[in-house]
Specification:
Blueprint (H helix, E strand, L loop, with lengths): L2 E2 L8 E4 L11 H17 L5 E4 L8 H15 L1 H7 E5 L2 H15 L4
Amino acid sequence: MIYLTDMSALPDQIISIDDFIDGNHPNLDVAERIAIAVVAAITSDAHTVIGVNVNGLSGVSSSFFNLFFTIVFEACGRETTRDRVVVLSDSNAMSAIVQRSREAVLGDAA
């Protein structure tokens, strides 16, 4: 089962965390690089919804997603981040971590 962090938008384009992990575990550098890729995809098309696939990801704290959402939010704004960034996870626990970070960075529930 795939858990979406925002059920209002299905992604048009998928960016996979697997393409950014350099070692055994993702670090904050990975979060930054994924966020930069998401910002680039958002700014290249005014209507594309970006899905970030984190299936199989484990062992990351909310700091990882806090940084990710902060970079996207600062570059694209609150509304665009809410409306056009969806995180895809195969874990209910990971989805909960992502949702808490999303809410913390964007200021309220998505």
